[in-house]
Specification:
The complex is a heterotrimer.
Chain A (H helix, E strand, L loop, with lengths): L15 H21 L2 E3 L4 E3 L3 H7 L4 H31 L5 H13 L2 H11 L6 H12 L16 H27 L3 H9 L4 H12 L1 H17 L2 H6 L11 H10 L3 H32 L1
Antiparallel strand pairs in A: 1-2
Chain B lengths: L1 H13 L4 H6 L9 E8 L2 H17 L3 E8 L2 H13 L6 E4 L3 H4 L3 H4 L30 E3 L3 E8 H6 L8 H13 L3 E3 L11 H4 L2 H7 L3 H6 L9 H15 L12 H9 L3 E7 L2 H8 L7 E4 L11 E4 L2 E5 L6 H11 L2 H10 L19 H11 L4 E3 L12 H9 L5 H19 L5
Parallel strand pairs in B: 1-2, 1-3, 6-7, 9-11
Antiparallel strand pairs in B: 3-10, 4-10, 5-7, 5-8, 5-9
Helix pairs in contact in B: 3-16, 12-19, 13-14, 18-19
Chain C lengths: L1 H42 L3 H4 L12 H47 L3 H15 L4 H10 L6 H24 L4 H9 L4 H12 L1 H17 L2 H6 L8 H11 L4 H32 L5
Helix pairs in contact in C: 1-12, 3-6, 3-9, 3-11, 3-12, 4-6, 6-9, 9-12, 11-12
Chain lengths: ~300, ~425, ~290
C-alpha cells in the first residue's frame, strides 16, 4: 500500500499558535487538576483518597435538583435561542425599514456585563415592587381580576430557574442572531432569485432555501448555546445564588460553592462529573450534526 | 536573570504577542522606601477606615509605604484569599475573619506567628482563642469592634405598645402577637441576602452553651447530634415557629439586608434578628432614626440565664510569603496602637467594644452600642459565637435556614441537613472523629 | 387582468410588511429597551430616590454628577481600569481572530488524525471549566502572572474553543474550489490561508470580534485570579468592587454599569454600519 507522498497544501503549522496556547494554559492545568479529583486537596497539600470524592459528590443532598435544573436550563435556553434567533435573523436580513434599529437594540444586552444584567433583572423581577408584576397587576386589573403575579425568583418551585433562563435568552439571543446573520449573508443571492423565478413564496424560500443553507450556523448556535446552558453559572449566581434555599442550583453552582468552601478535591471531582455529563449529551449531538453537514 | 530567561521563553510560547507588552513587565521600578502591600474587604466603611489609617501610619513611619488593595466580600472573597495563599501571591498584610474561617486557611503553614510581639499582652483575653492555631501560635491582631448576635428592635414600637424586653422565647412570641395585632410586622427577615437568615440559629449559641456546658469540645469531636438535643434544635425551630405564626414580613424572600434595616428604622417592623453592627447601615442611611433602635439578646428558655452571643472582630494577619517582615510587623503593631484607635473612632463611631485593653472609645455612640456594652460588661451575660470556639462550620447553613423559614423543610430536616453539611466540612478539613 | 391581480397582491404584502415593522419595533422596545430605560433613570437619581428602584423619571437629573462621582472615586482609579480594559480587549480579540481562524481552516480542510484530535479538544475545552490554581502555577513559571500580556494569553486561550468552532463551521460554507484554484496558482500553506481564505471570512470574523469583545470586556472572574493588584484592575473588577461598596447606593451602582457599558456600546454604534456592510460584502457568490 504505497501512497505517493505529496506535501499537503494545508500547512499543519497553522495549528501551532493555538495548539501551544491551549497546551500551556489549558491542557496542562486541566490534567494537573484531574489528578486532584482523586485527592483531598487543600491547594497546598493533597492526600490520595481514590474515588471517595465521587461517591461523596453523588451523596450530595441537592444533587437531584442540580441535575434537573441543569437540563431544564440548557434545553430551555438553547431551544429558545435557536428558534428566536432564526426568526429574528430572517427578519433582520430582510429589507424592512426597522431592521437597522432593531438589530442594534437586539445586541445591546450582549454588551452589558452579566453582573449588570443580573442586578437589573432581579430588581425588575421583584414580585412586590418590581415593574414586571406591576404591569401584570394592572393588566389583570383592566380585565377586572386581581392577582399577586408570579413570584419569579423567589417561587419555591421551578419558576426561579425558568426566570433566569428567560433572562439568559434575553441577554444571549443577540449573539445567536449574529451567528445566523453571518450565515445568511453567506447564502448566494442566486438561490433566492432562482427560487422566486420558480414561483416560491417567501415562506417556501425560508423553509427550502434559508433553513438548509443556514445549517452550519444553526449547528454552531445549537452546540454553543447547549454547552453554554449546561455550564452556565454566572447569571444564576448573580441573580439568586442558587436560592432561595437550593431551589435554583445547577451543577456548576454546586461545584462553585464547593470550591469557595475550600473543598478543592471535591469541586474538581464535580467538574469531572459535569464534564462527563456534558460529554454524554454533546459529543453524540456534535457527531450527528457533523454527519449531516457532510451529507449536505 | 531568571526573570529575563523566563520571559524569553514566554515570548517564544506566545508566538506573536507584541514584544512591547511582554517586556513591559521587565521594567521593575526602583524604590527607596520599603513598600508593603495590605489587602482588606471592599466596603465604603473599610475603605474610609484603611485610607485614614494607612495615611496616619505612613506619616508616622516615612520609611514605609503601604499600598492598600481590596477584595470582594462573601464567598468570592473567601475563594480568592485561599487561592492567593495557596499560590504564594498574598499581600504582605491582610485582614480576614478569625475563628473557624482562620482555621480553614491553615494558619500554621500560611501565616506568621505573632505570639512574641509586644502588643499581644494588651489583647483582651476573650479574643485569644479565636486567633490561636492548632500549634498554639497566635496569628492575628484584632481589628474593629465586637459585634453582638441577637435582635435589633424598634424602641418606639416597644414604648407605644408598652412592651417589655423578653427574657424567654415565650415572652418574645407573646410580644410578637401584640405587635401583629397592632398591624406592625413582628419579625423582619431578609432572605435575598441569605446570610442574614442564620441569626436565629447562630445567635442562639449563648443559650446552647448555657444548657450544655462543655458543648464546643463535644461538638468539635462529633459527639453532638443537632436534631436530638432540644437546645441545639431550638434555633431551627424558631425559624419554623415564626413562619407558622405568620410573623415574617410578607416580602421576606425578596428583601435585602438594606431593605430590612429600612423597615426597622421606619417602624414598619419591630424585630430584626441581626448582628448589632447592622446599626452602622441605619446610621448611614437614616441618621435621624438611629436613636430609635435598640439591641437585645436572643431569649432562650430560662429567664435567669439571658445573654448575648458575641462575634469577634476581624484579624489582621501577616502572610508567611512576605519579603518585608519587619515593616509588616511594624504596621500590624501600629493598627492596635492608641493612635490607630483615635483614627478609627474619627472615621466611624465604634458599634461595640474593641478587643485591646485601654483602647479609647469616642464619637457619637448609639443606643445599640450601649446595649451591647452592658451585656458584655455584665457577669455571665455574654458568650462567644460557636464559630470562634471550633473549626467546624458548615458553609450551607444560610440556605438551610432559608429553606426552613420558607417552609421547604421543617426544623428537624433542617437540623439533619446541617449535620451532614458539618460532616462534609470536617472530613474535607481532615478533622479527627468525623 | 392578471397584472392587476398581481399588483393587488404586492400592495397587500407591502401593507403586511408595515405591520411587521410596527409590531417588531413595539416588541423590541418593550423587551429590550425598558430595562435600559430603568438603568438610566435610576443611574440619574439621588441616593434616596434610587433606593425605591422604580421606573419614574428622577426629580432632578444627576446622571453626569453620579458618573463623575464613580469615575473620580478612589483616586480616579476607574480611569486606569479603563485603560487596562481597553488594552486587554483589543489585543485579546485581535489575536483570537488571527489564531483561531487559522486553526479552524486547517481543521476543516485537512481531515486527518490531527483534526479529529483537535475536534475533540475543542469540544473538551468548551465543556471543562478552567482549573484556576494550576493555571496560576503555570503562569508563574513562565513569568506571565500578574501581567497584561499573560492575561491576554489567558483570554485568547479560553476563547479559542468557541472561536475555532465557529470558524470551522463557516469555512464549511467556502467552496473547496476556491482553495484548489489558489493551489494551482502555487499558493499554499500560510499564504493560502492569509491571502485567499482569511479575506473571505470577514463576516464571521466580525461576528466573532463582537462576541469576543463583549466576552473579554465583561470578564471579571479571570482578571480577579490572574491579574490581581490595583494597578492592574479592569473595569469589571471595579464594578464587582462597587457591588459591595455601593450596596445601598443603587444610583452609583447603576451609573457605574452605564459607564462601563458605554464603551462596547459606542464601539458598536460606531462600527454598526461597517459591521453590516462587512457582513454582506463578505458573502460568497456561488
Amino acid at each position: 500500500m504505497k501512497k505517493k507522498r505529496i506535501k499537503s497544501p494545508y500547512a499543519s503549522s497553522l495549528y501551532w499558535p493555538a495548539g501551544i496556547l491551549y497546551m500551556v494554559l489549558f491542557f496542562i492545568p486541566t490534567v494537573l487538576s484531574l489528578f486532584f479529583s482523586l485527592t483531598r486537596w487543600t491547594l497546598q497539600e493533597w492526600e490520595f483518597i481514590g474515588i471517595e470524592n465521587f461517591t461523596l459528590y453523588f451523596s450530595e443532598e441537592n444533587l437531584r435538583i442540580g441535575f434537573r435544573n441543569t437540563i431544564i436550563y440548557a434545553v430551555l435556553t438553547s431551544g429558545l435561542k435557536v428558534i428566536f434567533a432564526l426568526y429574528l435573523a430572517t427578519f433582520l436580513s430582510s429589507k424592512l425599514r426597522a431592521t437597522g434599529f432593531i438589530r442594534s437594540v437586539l445586541f445591546f444586552p450582549t454588551l452589558v456585563s452579566t453582573i449588570g444584567v443580573g442586578i437589573t433583572f432581579s430588581v425588575l423581577m421583584n414580585p412586590y415592587e418590581g415593574i414586571i408584576n406591576a404591569v401584570i397587576k394592572s393588566v389583570a386589573g383592566f380585565f377586572g381580576k386581581t392577582t399577586d403575579g408570579p413570584g419569579w425568583l423567589i417561587d419555591p418551585n421551578l419558576l426561579p430557574i425558568v426566570s433566569i433562563a428567560l433572562v439568559d435568552v434575553w441577554k444571549g439571543v443577540g449573539i445567536a442572531t449574529l451567528i445566523y446573520i453571518a450565515g445568511m449573508a453567506a447564502i448566494p443571492r442566486d438561490y433566492y432569485e432562482a427560487s422566486s423565478i420558480d414561483g416560491a413564496s417567501t415562506r417556501q424560500q425560508f423553509y427550502k432555501v434559508t433553513i438548509p443553507l443556514v445549517r452550519p450556523a444553526m449547528f454552531s448556535v445549537i452546540i454553543l448555546s447547549f454547552v453554554g446552558g449546561l455550564r452556565s453559572f454566572d447569571l444564576i449566581w448573580a441573580m439568586t445564588g442558587g436560592g432561595p434555599g437550593f431551589i435554583s442550583d445547577v451543577l456548576a453552582s454546586i461545584n462553585y460553592k464547593q470550591y469557595t468552601s475550600g473543598y478543592y478535591g471535591l469541586a474538581t471531582a464535580g467538574n469531572v462529573i459535569l464534564f462527563v455529563v456534558v460529554s454524554i449529551l454533546v459529543f453524540p449531538l456534535s457527531r450527528y450534526l457533523n454527519k449531516k453537514e457532510v451529507v449536505m | 536573570m531568571k526573570i529575563v530567561r523566563n520571559s524569553r521563553l514566554a515570548k517564544a510560547l506566545m508566538l506573536g504577542l507584541p514584544a512591547v507588552l511582554a517586556s513591559a513587565m521587565l521594567a521593575a521600578p526602583a524604590q527607596a522606601a520599603t513598600e508593603i502591600t495590605f489587602q482588606t474587604w471592599n466596603s465604603q466603611v473599610s475603605q474610609d477606615q484603611w485610607n485614614a489609617m494607612t495615611a496616619a501610619f505612613m506619616k508616622a513611619n516615612p520609611d514605609i509605604t503601604v499600598k492598600v488593595s481590596y477584595v470582594p466580600g462573601g464567598v468570592e472573597g473567601d475563594a480568592l484569599i485561599k487561592t492567593q495563599l495557596a499560590s504564594g501571591t498574598m499581600a504582605d498584610v491582610f485582614s480576614y475573619n478569625v475563628g473557624a474561617l482562620m482555621q480553614a486557611i491553615d494558619p500554621v503553614r500560611n501565616l506568621v506567628n505573632l505570639k512574641n510581639e509586644p502588643w499581644v499582652k494588651s489583647v483582651n483575653s476573650g479574643f485569644i482563642p479565636s486567633a490561636t492555631g492548632p500549634d498554639g501560635g497566635f496569628y492575628a491582631a484584632p481589628f474593629g469592634t465586637a459585634m453582638g448576635g441577637g435582635i435589633l428592635y424598634n424602641k418606639r414600637i416597644y414604648a407605644k405598645l408598652n412592651l417589655q424586653i423578653p427574657l424567654t422565647w415565650k415572652d418574645f412570641m407573646a410580644n410578637n402577637a401584640k405587635i401583629k395585632k397592632a398591624g406592625i410586622v413582628p419579625v423582619i427577615s431578609s432572605w435575598k441576602d441569605s446570610w442574614t437568615a442564620q441569626l436565629f440559629v447562630l445567635g442562639d449559641h449563648f443559650n446552647v452553651a448555657a444548657a450544655m456546658p462543655g458543648f464546643e469540645e463535644k461538638f468539635t469531636g462529633n459527639k453532638i447530634v443537632l436534631a436530638k438535643n432540644p437546645s441545639t434544635l431550638a434555633g431551627f425551630q424558631h425559624l419554623e415557629e415564626v413562619r407558622k405564626a405568620g410573623y415574617y414580613n410578607k416580602d421576606v424572600a425578596a428583601t435585602t439586608f438594606a431593605k430590612a434595616l429600612e423597615y426597622l428604622a421606619l417602624g414598619k417592623g419591630a424585630h430584626y434578628p441581626m448582628l448589632s453592627a447592622g446599626i452602622d447601615t441605619i446610621v448611614a442611611n437614616f441618621p435621624t432614626k438611629a436613636s430609635d433602635i435598640g439591641f437585645m439578646a436572643q431569649p432562650g428558655t430560662n429567664a435567669k440565664s439571658n445573654g448575648v452571643t458575641v462575634w469577634m472582630p476581624a484579624g489582621v494577619y501577616i502572610a508567611k510569603t512576605t519579603k518585608n517582615l519587619e515593616a509588616a510587623k511594624k504596621f500590624v503593631a501600629w493598627t492596635v496602637s492608641k493612635e490607630s484607635f483615635e483614627v478609627q473612632n474619627k472615621v466611624v463611631p465604634p458599634s461595640g467594644p474593641y478587643f485591646i485593653k485601654g483602647a479609647p472609645v469616642s464619637g457619637n455612640l448609639t443606643g445599640v452600642f450601649t446595649d451591647l456594652y452592658n451585656y458584655m460588661q455584665g457577669k455571665g451575660t455574654s458568650y462567644p459565637a460557636l464559630e470562634f470556639l471550633t473549626p467546624v462550620k458548615g458553609p450551607n447553613l444560610s440556605q438551610i435556614c432559608v429553606e426552613i423559614g420558607s417552609g421547604q423543610k421543617n426544623a428537624l430536616q433542617g437540623a439533619q441537613s446541617y449535620q451532614k453539611d458539618l460532616q462534609k466540612q470536617s472530613q474535607q478539613l481532615g478533622l479527627a472523629g468525623w | 387582468m392578471i397584472l392587476t391581480r398581481n399588483k393587488g397582491l404586492k400592495s397587500k404584502t407591502k401593507y403586511r410588511s408595515i405591520w411587521a415593522d410596527i409590531t417588531g419595533i413595539i416588541v423590541t422596545v418593550i423587551v429590550f429597551i425598558l430595562p435600559f430605560y430603568f438603568l438610566v433613570v435610576n443611574a440619574a437619581k439621588s441616593q434616596e430616590e434610587s433606593f425605591r428602584l422604580n421606573m419614574s423619571p428622577p426629580e432632578k437629573w444627576l446622571l453626569f454628577q453620579n458618573i463623575a462621582k464613580v469615575v473620580s472615586d478612589y483616586d480616579w482609579h476607574v480611569l486606569n481600569a479603563t485603560k487596562n480594559s481597553l488594552i486587554l480587549t483589543i489585543f485579546s480579540v485581535f489575536f483570537l481572530i488571527i489564531i483561531s481562524g487559522m486553526t479552524g481552516f486547517v481543521m476543516h480542510r485537512k481531515r486527518d488524525n490531527t483534526s479529529a484530535v483537535a475536534n475533540f479538544l475543542v469540544l473538551t475545552a468548551l465543556v471543562i471549566p478552567p482549573a484556576i490554581v494550576p493555571t496560576i502555577w503555570v503562569l508563574q513559571r513562565i513569568g506571565l502572572y500578574k501581567t497584561l500580556a499573560g492575561m491576554i494569553a489567558i483570554e485568547v486561550a479560553y476563547g479559542l474553543a468557541f472561536a475555532v468552532l465557529i470558524f470551522r463551521n463557516f469555512i464549511g460554507t467556502i467552496p473547496k474550489e476556491i482553495d484548489e484554484a489558489a493551489i494551482v496558482d502555487g499558493c499554499t500553506g500560510w499564504n493560502l490561508y492569509f491571502r485567499i481564505i482569511f479575506p473571505l471570512l470577514k463576516p464571521v470574523s466580525i461576528t466573532i470580534g463582537i462576541i469576543a469583545t463583549a466576552a473579554v470586556f465583561n470578564d471579571f472572574t479571570n482578571p480577579l485570579y490572574f491579574l490581581p493588584g490595583d494597578e492592574n484592575a479592569t473595569l469589571q473588577g471595579t464594578l464587582f468592587a462597587y457591588v459591595s461598596r455601593y450596596s445601598t447606593q443603587y444610583n452609583l451602582l447603576f451609573a457605574d454599569i452605564l459607564y462601563i457599558t458605554a464603551f462596547p456600546l459606542l464601539a458598536f454604534i460606531f462600527f454598526n454600519k461597517r459591521i453590516v456592510s462587512g457582513m454582506t460584502a463578505g458573502s460568497i457568490k456561488g
